[in-house]
Amino acid sequence: IMDIVKDYIEVNSKVQIIGFTDKTGGEDLNLELSKERAKSASQLIGNADIILSAKGENNQLFPYNLPEGRMYSRTVKIIIETPIKE
Hints:
Layout: H1 2-7, E1 14-20, H2 27-45, E2 50-56, H3 67-73, E3 76-81
Parallel strand pairs: 1-2
Antiparallel strand pairs: 1-3
Protein backbone atom coordinates (compact mmCIF):
# COMPACT_ATOMS: atom_id res chain seq x y z
CA ILE A 1 0.00 0.00 0.00
CA MET A 2 2.79 2.43 0.87
CA ASP A 3 4.40 1.90 -2.54
CA ILE A 4 1.12 3.02 -4.13
CA VAL A 5 0.93 6.01 -1.77
CA LYS A 6 4.51 7.03 -2.65
CA ASP A 7 3.56 7.14 -6.34
CA TYR A 8 1.16 10.00 -5.61
CA ILE A 9 3.69 12.17 -3.75
CA GLU A 10 5.38 14.81 -5.87
CA VAL A 11 8.20 17.17 -4.91
CA ASN A 12 5.75 19.98 -4.10
CA SER A 13 3.22 17.78 -2.27
CA LYS A 14 2.24 18.40 1.34
CA VAL A 15 1.84 15.12 3.18
CA GLN A 16 0.11 14.68 6.52
CA ILE A 17 -0.19 11.40 8.41
CA ILE A 18 -2.65 11.12 11.30
CA GLY A 19 -2.52 8.15 13.67
CA PHE A 20 -5.61 6.74 15.39
CA THR A 21 -6.39 4.05 17.99
CA ASP A 22 -9.42 2.50 19.58
CA LYS A 23 -10.45 3.10 23.19
CA THR A 24 -8.91 -0.10 24.56
CA GLY A 25 -6.26 0.77 27.14
CA GLY A 26 -5.47 4.07 28.79
CA GLU A 27 -5.78 7.43 27.08
CA ASP A 28 -2.05 8.22 27.37
CA LEU A 29 -1.09 4.82 25.98
CA ASN A 30 -3.50 5.24 23.08
CA LEU A 31 -2.11 8.65 22.23
CA GLU A 32 1.41 7.19 22.19
CA LEU A 33 0.25 4.26 20.02
CA SER A 34 -1.33 6.61 17.52
CA LYS A 35 1.92 8.66 17.38
CA GLU A 36 3.90 5.49 16.72
CA ARG A 37 1.49 4.45 13.95
CA ALA A 38 1.92 7.80 12.21
CA LYS A 39 5.71 7.63 12.64
CA SER A 40 5.89 4.08 11.23
CA ALA A 41 3.86 5.06 8.18
CA SER A 42 6.11 8.08 7.67
CA GLN A 43 9.22 5.92 7.77
CA LEU A 44 7.75 3.61 5.12
CA ILE A 45 7.13 6.56 2.83
CA GLY A 46 10.63 7.89 3.49
CA ASN A 47 9.86 11.58 2.98
CA ALA A 48 11.30 13.96 5.59
CA ASP A 49 8.71 16.72 5.05
CA ILE A 50 5.72 14.82 6.42
CA ILE A 51 3.52 16.40 9.08
CA LEU A 52 2.69 13.85 11.78
CA SER A 53 -0.17 14.06 14.24
CA ALA A 54 -1.92 11.71 16.63
CA LYS A 55 -5.57 11.57 17.61
CA GLY A 56 -5.47 8.65 20.02
CA GLU A 57 -8.94 7.51 20.97
CA ASN A 58 -10.51 10.98 20.93
CA ASN A 59 -11.57 11.00 17.27
CA GLN A 60 -13.69 7.91 16.78
CA LEU A 61 -13.57 6.70 13.18
CA PHE A 62 -15.73 3.61 13.70
CA PRO A 63 -18.03 2.41 16.50
CA TYR A 64 -16.03 1.12 19.45
CA ASN A 65 -18.83 -1.15 20.64
CA LEU A 66 -18.02 -3.78 17.99
CA PRO A 67 -14.72 -5.67 17.65
CA GLU A 68 -14.62 -4.75 13.96
CA GLY A 69 -15.00 -1.05 14.77
CA ARG A 70 -12.15 -1.18 17.26
CA MET A 71 -9.95 -3.02 14.74
CA TYR A 72 -10.68 -0.54 11.92
CA SER A 73 -9.93 2.38 14.28
CA ARG A 74 -6.32 1.22 14.66
CA THR A 75 -5.17 2.97 11.53
CA VAL A 76 -3.54 5.97 9.93
CA LYS A 77 -4.99 8.54 7.57
CA ILE A 78 -2.66 9.86 4.88
CA ILE A 79 -3.51 13.18 3.25
CA ILE A 80 -1.56 14.22 0.17
CA GLU A 81 -2.13 17.74 -1.19
CA THR A 82 -0.42 18.61 -4.44
CA PRO A 83 -0.92 22.05 -6.04
CA ILE A 84 -2.35 22.02 -9.54
CA LYS A 85 0.13 23.14 -12.17
CA GLU A 86 -1.11 26.02 -14.31
